[in-house]
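Weekly sync notes, structure subgroup
Attendees: PM, AL, DS (notes)

Item 1: joint prediction request from the bench team. They want all two components modeled as one assembly rather than separately. Inputs as received:
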Amino acid sequence: MLRYTIRRFFLMIPTLLGVAVLVFLLLRAMPGDIVEVRMLMDGGQVSPEALALERARLGLDQPLIYQFYHWITGIMVGDFGTSMWTGRPVIEEIGNRLGLSLQVAIMATILAVMISIPLGTISAIYNNTWIDHVIRAFAIAGLAVPSFWLGMLIILGLLLTFNWIPPLTYTPIWEDPIRNLSQLIWPAIAVGYRYSAVATRMTRSTLLEVLQEDYIRTARAKGVYERLVLSRHAIRNAMLPVVTVIGLEFAFLIGGLVVTEQVFNLNGIGKLFVETVTRADYTMVQALVMLVAAFFIIINFVVDLLYAVLDPRIRYS
Amino acid sequence: MKLRLGTLILGLAAFALTTGGVDAQTPKKGGILKFAVGAEPPSYDCHRETSFAFIHPVRPHYNTLLKFDEANYPKVVGDLAQSWTVSPDGLTYTFKLHPNVKFHDGSAFSSADVKATYERIAHPPQGVVSIRKAAYEDIASIETPDPLTVVFKLKAPNASMLTNFASPWDCIYSAAKLKEDPRYPEKNVMGTGPFKFVEHAAGSHWVGERFKDYFVKDRPYLDGFRAIFITNTSARVNALQAGEVLAEFRGQSPADEKKLKDALGDKINVAESPWVCSLVVTFNVKRKPFDDVRVRRALSLAIDRWKGAEALSKIAVVRHVGGVLRPGYELAASNAELETYPGFGRDINKARAEAKKLLAEAGVKDLKFKFLNRNVPMPYTPVGVFVIDQWRQIGVTAEHEQPETKAYIGNLRSGNYDVGLDFNCDAVDDPNLQLLKYLSSDKSTINYGHNIDRKVDELYEKQKRELDPKKRAAILRELEKHILTEANTVPVVWWHRIIVTWKQMHGWHMSPSHYINQDLQNVWLDQ
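Output from the run, pasted for the record:
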């Protein structure tokens, strides 16, 4: 197990390096650069000297290979550089926003797990009854409704009913828990609904499959209580693909709440992503892509390890 | 006499409409003004930035030498300057400065600070980016005979010099700080303005508090301000509707204005004004057939600007038909003059018949091209769709392309496009600024048509040096007619600014620019 863990950990390095090369080249393949966006986006005459000076200041006048070497060697010593737009360290910019995105992701995950596991299980147990139909309709609606749209409905609902919208600026939970939750509960519900819909569908289908297995029939034949059959034999075995889905969704939420964060004016990673892509802030986009890629890889890694916990038959030799 | 009285009443009504009414109440002290800003300032340096997102949170921390009279735009009044004189030959500008002005760190302000500031703008030291350096290229020397006097001597007269000195971008910095580090303002906010800098939470908000030693007696009224960065338009409008912010100073669309009026009724004020911002069609003359003036003129003639502006005003932040200068500006063409220019006549059928004839003469049949536009919905998309439809009516097919901003600007600059919808926005009305778009491409970095027209360059220089407004206007008309006839770049429609504010906010005045009137010195809250 230890050898497997170490091997998987070192496999992350070539994956991240591939991501680094790809994002670096793709960003520069497009016409225009950050200097043009920054200085010409609002109109007005800017001299070629000013543009050249700014490019030199940002190191964009250097050969691509040099820029890449400079960036990648920086990453190796933990220096992700400074944002070309704000001039502040990339780590600081991301750090300012990561807490909020993580909290929304955790809240949405808790919500999704609390809803999806019971609903998926009930749906599988009462397969093809009206209860199953209602739960399936709930889940399909969750898949069909984009989170940002649900977010917009929530905001409009609050605005029209209570003439109130969630706070516009973030307060950490340890400073003011009520204000924090009154801001973040709404986006957590908006994304948690879709998230729970995915997990409900997965729980239902895998549980249905497991319930057809021989060992379930054997357990029932032996006279084991149905509750024990479900909790000890069925649900535990059905959880493997559900854990995978939950893990991937969690990783997605870290950088993927692009529109939802805008709708709720959340100063998170998704909003930062959109802003930095629009601004062509190379260093920031590169760091964000690396961050999201690293999150996906780490979550996958953790999910793989969880497999062994959930199913002792799985051994990584 | 009746006519005069009627004119006066109409004038007063128009003034009231454009300024959003006059505050008759006694200002109250205190309160924090919360307002929304649609983007975030990249650095803190006035001299290197160009965005309204910079001006709205940062301008309240600074003063400029002159500024525009808030209630009487475009009249120029003193800010740090108490008074000024201009020599008859227009070559010497002498400013007397306000005494007892302090910087936020407690140090005294003097003429040395003005000199250091303008030296930094006109002759930026190594590593300093000065965007508006060209505006001060006529300055020969800056002298400071005493701590409260500063004298600018010019190499040649410049009709726009006072406007330049009132630019909202020319924040006055501390000479001592600039001496320590010429790039000090990039990461520090320290001026003489009505508000001291408190906090900038990246991506979230910006906070300023009242500067107790501000040199203007009893100002500012507010205890402070809080600018909240809200990039999403719907979120901004929702914040306004909920009263989470009392204003957003860039502008709202007609649809958002209606939504807010319906929801809030008489709780809000709505102020409107023509905007120093136009959308222009630019032809890439390096690509055929746009190197042929007949083709360019035909495409300009096909656009029904008058009816288009009227229709578009219902859905987009555009409303006005104008030439190269903002309609309503004292040096702009009147409607009667405009109608004599190609593409600005009222008889669209006649214009389109002429357009078809010109295309036939040029040997162009079934013209098809790609139309490059910005991927910003308001107002670029509706205006782009409108223009394409206008061309369709003379048998021309244009394919609408809206790449993201970086590719849009990159393609315009590199000439990787056929025809584009470009914008011409400035901080103030000034022919020297608005005409830069039309100068030859070797003299202007924002001429994306990549054309050379020496007559434009010559007339531009002539109007710049002409100090008599009447003579300058005559030169401008000649220049405008030439530009619109050659049709390398042609205006389509001018923007219309709509600002919605909650009624408890007073003392802010509407103007045709979203860059001025933003020091918040006279703003107060009735609460």
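Discussion: Chain A touches chain B through 54 residues (CB under 8 Å).
Action: AL to compare against the crosslinking data before next sync.
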